Amino acid sequence: MAEHEHTTGIEALANEQRTFPPTEQFKASTLVAGTQLYEEAAQNDEAFWARQASELVHWDTEWHTTLDWQLPYAKWFDGGTLNVSYNCLDRHVLAGNGDKVAFHWEGEPGDKRTITYQDLLDEVSQFANVLKGLGVEKGDRVMIYMPMIPEAAVAMLACARIGAPHSVVFGGFSSQSLADRIDDAEAKIIITADGGYRRGEVFALKPAADEACEKTSSIEHVVVVKRGGNDVEWADGRDHWYHELMDGVSTDCPAEPMEAEHLLFLLYTSGTTGKPKGIMHTTGGYLTHVTYTHKYVFDLQPENDVFWCTADVGWITGHSYIVYGPLSNGCTQVMYEGVPNHPGNDRLWEIVDEYGVTIFYTAPTAIRTFMKWGADEPDKHDLSSLRLLGTVGEPINPEAWMWYHDVIGKGNCPIVDTWWQTETGGIMISPLPGATTTKPGSATFPLPGVSAELVDDEANVVPVGGGYLTLTRPWPGMLRGIWRDPERYQETYWSRFPDRYFAGDGAKLDDDGYLWLLGRVDDVMNVSGHRISTTEVESALVSHPSVAEAAVVGATDATTGQAVFAYVILRGGADADEQTLRNHVAGEIGAIAKPKRVFITPDLPKTRSGKIMRRLLRDVAEGRNIGDTTTLADASIVDELQSKAAASADD
Question: What pTM was computed for the model?
Fold first, then answer.
């Protein structure tokens, strides 16, 4: 019985007691200082979402049904029509805000562009006319494979203007990844660039797009933005320069009203196995969700705020909180092309200082990297414009949260730690910064309108402690399925627990009802029957003053089933040995979580978006051959880790 004793949930080991209520100064100007939104949504969530849709979004035709819920399929605002591009652009220009800055864009080499809402409307309208001229019609799929340049947002909004669903593919993906997505979507056109800037050099995109075209059969045209200036191959008749197509094209292109459930975009998530899943997001519900969450989670004051989300448009974060949510709310943003450490480790803080950024939204991986580089880098710049900080992408460990709070926010900025997914469309669990007392490392509570519960293996609700995070009610931004694969949609998200959405994350509830995300259930280790989250062990390691970043995996062990293996990056100039760090974990969360091995390494295998490839770390720990490393930012780090593991095995 011992080995099954603890398998009905996930152990909740860490215990964080620090709390940070909103300051009186922040509460004085916040949009929501009390519980009124929570109370309204709790009474009737459909009516709550209907009010958000009607107040925050422009509709051409009113809907007749707020929600049609046939589990697992939802239709929101059925009968209503609207255009996302109109909501993001035309309505602000018509309201007299055409001269307002939409984007302060900064290229990695230092070139800059200031783009107003009128500028953006004109360019989007022109490019929508270009797409129509290339034969793109409502319903046709368009692939976008771009660096972080304004034309990426222009392409997305132009597609939305004419009802052509887009599928953005991150510029770091290989030609094969692009080809797989083109094939599945049966895309008609690719919009790409010759290249973009990264770490001071041009990385080519057009060659990968060419290779993808050769492997697929549906592409009729390739539109190429001239950015990198690198030499490219050219297929006459198929390939077109963006600037040549745009030359002299009319800026008159009325936005066509779309049905609320019209497909706005496909975004592919690369599952750990099998072909990528084409996540479907539609028009009315998605726009309502991202407009609402962007406004309230970031306490948006559009007349004063300068918002900067550091994500790439290739990810859902870039779709929802660079393009659609912020532009729908008419706010001014920063968009940056390059990496955080070119030409120096202070590049992001230089940009915050230059543009007076007030709201900064980034990933915990980035924050831990900033910690490694040290407080001297942000201290070179005036960050006093910042009033709110946010995190996205994975759970943030308490020490990284505190560093962010103290060093970047100078103790004055609330932190919104947000949980959501490609599939949810927008933020689901987060503090409301003027209303919520935060705890370092906790995403706190579901937002008003969102219903979440933890359950155990038998689907019993877990009131306190660890469990599986499920969503119990439909929400407007939810995925509408997997493109052309309804069985996979049902199996992936709705089969594990009856009548509940479950996408694979573990969480715990503390005695105060706060939610703590524990990462993917796949990242839960089973050590002697105890189910231990890698996130909690990583947090314990990073709480040691010498540690900047840690990645933890469970590897097969003959005695305990799985053993804990940790890979640690030390802070600049710091020193710590393996035994010290093993004992530190035991002291923080208990001997059961003590790592079998701790490897100290200068870096970790990460994708170009900053995600740690734990699969590779597991392979290293178990001595297996390493699989595909093409998506890694630096594949050489795997060789170094393998040699360390081999040396330790010989000891």
Answer: 0.87
